[in-house]
Amino acid sequence: MPGLAARAVGKVGAVRGQTPSRVVLTMPADVRLSRLAGVVVADAAARAGLSVHQVEAAAIAAANACATDPAGATVSLEVTVGPGGIDVRAASSNGTTVSVGR
Asked: Which residues of 15-35 are buried (b: 16+ CB within 10 A; e: fewer)?
């Protein structure tokens, strides 16, 4: 995928009962990268102890949020894992913001 790049930063590894961890993924709003957003959120949801159906739903929501912006936009996905759940915030360079929490 020439011309596409994603950047991830954060502290990972939190599990239920530990200090929350935070991951930030910044990437072009491109449908070809939407699966990456889904994988990041699915991992966080699984580490938080959510059910398989909740993990799948969170991954699909994140992928959709990152694939619906116009060409040239950038999406920043912030995922925080804490005891009992996750908080997800997707913000695009065109001003769209989506938040999903516990």
From this structure: eeeeeebbbebbbbbbeebbe
Q: Which tokens is 63 given?
A: 């992928």
Query: Structurally, how many domains does the chain consist of?
Result: 1
Tell me the CATH number at 88. Answer: 3.30.565.10
Whether 2 is in a domain gets the answer no
- pTM score: 0.74
User: Cβ distance 16 to 85 under 8 Å?
Assistant: no
Q: What is the extent of the structural domain holding 73?
A: 7-100
Task: Kindly give, in sequence order, each residue whose CB lies less than 8 Å from that of residue 61, ignoring residues fewer than 6 positions away.
Answer: 41, 88, 100
Are the beta carbons of 48 and 82 closer than 8 angstroms?
yes
User: What are the φ/ψ torsions at residue 3 (nearest 5 degrees)?
Assistant: 85, -5
pLDDT digits (tens, 9 = 90+) for 35-61: 999 999 999 888 888 899 999 998 988
